[in-house]
Structure formats: structure tokens, C-alpha cells
């Protein structure tokens, strides 16, 4: 998918050929973001929870990827995502967009990150409606109706899952989803995001 990318997807400078042994073995995909751009993204302190800290540049990246629909950016962090998720034995489940939002945005941004990284995943979730999550206290938000449903409850029984999203700020979305899987009898449910707010501690991510 990314063999034609010769320039950094973030700053557009020419990329140097990457001749690492992984590259020679065809095991790793080539970086599509240059080293100096990559260094601007702060590595998250808990590597099993997220790749990078959700900060100003992360927010800028998301804006360009999701709102300006710069689809090439989906390849930015394939190496980091593969590093964490390739050996993952649990089933990767991307967090879906509401169908209306999907229409607006024209592509499934979270799934595209996995597709670009050539990571296998299963779709188990549907988003019911457009509940605004920004209002009310954390407890109030949690008590509201879960905006997600499982496509088939019996399909998650006694299986392990890692829920994948692009960004985790309050943790509310992921908490809803983890509850849903656990109620349906999933064995172990963890979460992983590309970006995560430093202040978010996922108590249930054990
Ligand atoms: Zn660059």
C-alpha cells in the first residue's frame, strides 16, 4: 500500500532509503514519516496502552488525518502499531464511527490505521447514535446509555480482545466498550490507542 511513498507524509521532505535488516527480510514496512518528524511525537510512558502522548502535535495530526482527510497519514505509525500489536494474541477490535459520521468523513479512520499496518482485526461493534460525550461529569457520562452495541454477543464469549482506537482523552468511550464485552462474557479485554492523554489511567486495563 505504501511502496510509492517517497516523501515524509508529515513534512514532505524526501525520505532516506531504510535498509534495516527488517526491511531486507520484508518483515517491517518502511517508515513513511521522517526521523525528525517522528521525534516530535512523545512516546507514551505505558507502551502497552498507547504509542504516543496526546499533545499538541498529536491533535494536529488527528485534525489533518480525520478532518482534512489526509489518508496517507494512516501510514505514519505503522511500525509503532505493529511493534505493539503484531504479537498480540487477543483479537484486535477497532472502534467504529457512527455510520453518519462515516459518511461525512468518507473513510473509516481507525480501521485504516490497522489496514495500513497490515494488522488483522475483527469488527464486533456498532455505534448506535450520536450521543455527545463532552457534557456532564464523568459519572454522569458513564451512566448514560452505552452508545455501542455488539454485532453478535455470542461471538465474544470466552475470547480475549484488545480494543483499538485512534485517541483516548477521557477514557469514557473505551470504558463503555470494555463493559460491553465483559457483560457479554469476553475473557480478557484490554485497550490500546495511537494517542492517549497522559492524565488518563485505565483502571480496568488489567
Ligand atoms: Zn518529516
TrEMBL record:
CDD domains for the chain: PRTases_typeI
InterPro entries in alphabetical order: ComF/GntX_DNA_util-trans (IPR051910), PRTase-like (IPR029057), PRTase_dom (IPR000836)
Stretches assigned to the Phosphoribosyltransferase domain: 146-196
Pfam families from the UniProt entry: Pribosyltran (PF00156)
Similarity remark: Belongs to the ComF/GntX family.
The protein's name in its UniProt record: Phosphoribosyltransferase domain-containing protein
Organism (species): Lysinibacillus alkalisoli
Amino acid at each position: 500500500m505504501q511502496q510509492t511513498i517517497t516523501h515524509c507524509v508529515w513534512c514532505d521532505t524526501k525520505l532516506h532509503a531504510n535498509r534495516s535488516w527488517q526491511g531486507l527480510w520484508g518483515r517491517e514496512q518502511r517508515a513513511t514519516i521522517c526521523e525528525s518528524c517522528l521525534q516530535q511525537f512523545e512516546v507514551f510512558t505505558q507502551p502497552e496502552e498507547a504509542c504516543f502522548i496526546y499533545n499538541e502535535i498529536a491533535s494536529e495530526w488527528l485534525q489533518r488525518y480525520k478532518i482534512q482527510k489526509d489518508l496517507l497519514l494512516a501510514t505514519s505509525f505503522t511500525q509503532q502499531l505493529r511493534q505493539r500489536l503484531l504479537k498480540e494474541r487477543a483479537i484486535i477490535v477497532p472502534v467504529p464511527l457512527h455510520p453518519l459520521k462515516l459518511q461525512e468523513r468518507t473513510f473509516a479512520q481507525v480501521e485504516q490505521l490497522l489496514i495500513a499496518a497490515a494488522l488483522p482485526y475483527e469488527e464486533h461493534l456498532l455505534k448506535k447514535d450520536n450521543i455527545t460525550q463532552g457534557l456532564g461529569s464523568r459519572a454522569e457520562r458513564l451512566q448514560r446509555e452505552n452508545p455501542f452495541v455488539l454485532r453478535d454477543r455470542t461471538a465474544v464469549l470466552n475470547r480475549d480482545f484488545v480494543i483499538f482506537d485512534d485517541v483516548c482523552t477521557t477514557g469514557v468511550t473505551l470504558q463503555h466498550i470494555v463493559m460491553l464485552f465483559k457483560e457479554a462474557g469476553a475473557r480478557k479485554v484490554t485497550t490500546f490507542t495511537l494517542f492517549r492523554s497522559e492524565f488518563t489511567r485505565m483502571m480496568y486495563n488489567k
